[in-house]
Design a protein that fits this description.
The complex is a heterodimer of chains A (about 150) and B (about 325).
Chain A lengths: L4 H24 L22 E3 L15 H5 L5 E6 L8 E8 L8 H5 L5 E3 L14 E3 L9
Antiparallel strand pairs in A: 1-4, 2-3, 3-5
Chain B lengths: L2 H6 L1 H34 L15 H11 L10 H17 L18 H22 L3 H32 L4 H6 L11 H14 L11 H4 L9 H26 L10 H20 L7 H29 L1
Helix pairs in contact in B: 2-10, 2-11, 3-10, 4-5, 4-10, 5-6, 6-8, 6-12, 8-10, 8-12, 10-11
The chains are: A alpha+beta (about 150), B mainly alpha (about 325).
Chain lengths: ~150, ~325
């Protein structure tokens, strides 16, 4: 049965009051907006930010043994290693370690595949650059960006 | 010349009034736009403007500066004279309406004995400006917006006047200062609550604000009658809209909330507190409800508001006759 005129009026008043009350409660709630450049959200402990090389605290050198596992496993071909074997030694040594953040998909396979636990995720997530080449980072030099 | 003697000359009064009105006008345009953005933000769990000035207070000033700097574009095919004149036809009535607003017992430009009539007749002129804008723009959306605006204005003028008639009958006066004085004991919102609600709803409709914003419905008509306007001309329309919002709230304060009556604080402060409380309600309504369809809008006016206002008027007169 269709609502009569006065029933409709009653329903109208009820819904108007209900809607106004709802928006007023929202008015007094705490806003969810973060003032981004001034306030940053807390990053989770295991956040997969751009990668960096770990330093062995005993020797003060990079833990990396230049096995190139990370380079092989990287699905996006973001990691490039240059290694060299010094004369009179059988062990390869790390010469240059590059990561192209423009290619990196932040999957974390390099971190998982490292046999000596030499790579880790940092919590850096603001990596925007004006020039594409600046996204290619050399990680084996302390003092470079993101290291 | 001394300040007091300047007040007594006609020219002095005119200059001071224009200066005062312009100050209130500018102040209100800045504050009301900021309030609107802040309140809408907080209702939607956002913060609103935060960057320019403390809590974004200077945002409106920055926006105004930007609009002033923009080029004034006159599109091809428009009626140039009407197109240029229309914003000011909307703008000047809102300045003229300030004349009768009683900010306090002494602060009033001119206490006309037909103040109420003056206010509501001047407010109708703005509709002509809106139609001029819509017609001169040579744009179907503008014209549709203008036509809708006129239909809406004519319809909602009736409940507004009917609700105000209650006050006029009670006070036996059209003079706004006397209406305020009559409320020194009890505000008219108490005995006349229904007319207050009718007035508020119709006033929102007259202002072309959501939920009655069919003349400038964004999703249907781009921006309605001011689709073709940009830069300073748009800013004039925009400021007029927010000034009208202030004026309508000021009139609601005068008629129903006891005007400048109030304890402790100075009368002017009371007047502004009450006015901005009404402004808050208008903004609150806007950010709560969706837009009505044109036929719903007309039905609501003719089938609900007008009969209710008429019945209320009848009851008021009946009670006054018996007492």
């Amino acid at each position: 049965m269709k609502a009569s005129y006065f029933e409709k009026v009653g329903i109208g008043i009820k819904t108007v009051v209900k809607g106004m009350a709802k928006s007023l409660t929202y008015f007094f709630k705490k806003p969810v907006t973060l003032q981004y450049p001034h306030v940053r959200k807390k990053i989770a402990e295991r956040y997969r930010g751009s990668i960096r090389l770990k330093i062995d605290p005993e020797t003060g050198k990079f833990k990396c043994i230049a096995c190139t596992n990370c380079e092989k496993i990287c699905p996006a071909f973001a990691i490039t290693l240059k290694t060299e074997t010094p004369e009179g030694s059988k062990k390869k040594e790390l010469k240059e370690f590059y990561v192209d953040l423009g290619r990196c998909i932040y999957c974390g396979l390099c971190v998982d595949s490292c046999p000596v636990d030499a790579i880790e995720h940092s919590n850096v997530y603001e990596v925007a650059e004006r020039i594409k080449d600046n996204l290619i980072l050399r990680l084996d030099k302390i003092g470079e960006k993101n290291v | 010349m001394e300040f007091a003697s300047l007040l007594n000359t006609f020219l002095g009064r005119v200059i001071l009034s224009v200066a005062g009105v312009m100050i209130v006008f500018t102040f209100n345009a800045l504050i009301a736009v900021w309030l609107e953005r802040k309140i809408s933000g907080h209702i939607q769990l956002r913060l609103g403007p935060m960057e320019v000035g403390p809590h974004g207070l200077l945002q409106s000033a920055a926006d105004g500066l930007k609009l002033i700097c923009k080029e004034i574009i006159t599109p091809q095919g428009v009626d140039k004279k009407l197109f240029g004149l229309a914003p000011y036809m909307v703008f000047f009535p809102s300045l003229l309406m300030f004349v009768v607003i009683p900010f306090s017992d002494k602060l009033q430009v001119q206490d006309l004995n037909i103040g109420l009539l003056y206010f509501f007749s001047i407010s109708c002129i703005a509709t002509i400006g809106i139609f001029m804008a819509g017609w001169a723009s040579n744009n179907k959306y503008s014209l549709m917006g203008a036509v809708r605006s006129i239909a809406q204005s004519i319809a909602y003028e009736i409940p507004i006047i009917l609700s105000i008639l209650n006050i006029v009958i009670i006070t036996q006066s059209l003079k706004l200062s006397e209406i305020v004085k009559a409320q020194s004991n009890i505000w008219f919102i108490v005995p006349q609550f229904i007319p207050f609600i009718i007035y508020l709803i119709s006033a929102i409709a007259e202002l072309n604000r959501t939920p009655f914003d069919i003349p400038e419905a964004e999703s249907e008509l781009v921006a309605g009658f001011h689709t073709e306007y940009s830069g300073m001309r748009f800013a004039v329309f925009f400021m007029a809209e927010y000034t009208n919002m202030f004026l309508v709230s000021a009139m609601a304060t005068t008629l129903f909330l006891g005007g400048w009556n109030g304890p402790i604080l100075p009368p002017v402060v009371w007047f502004f507190i009450k006015t901005y409380a009404i402004v808050f309600i208008i903004i609150w309504v806007r950010w709560t409800f969706p837009r009505l369809r044109p036929d719903q809008l007309m039905n609501f006016c003719w089938k609900f508001l007008t009969p209710l206002a008429l019945v209320n008027l009848l009851v008021t007169t009946f009670i006054l006759k018996i007492l």
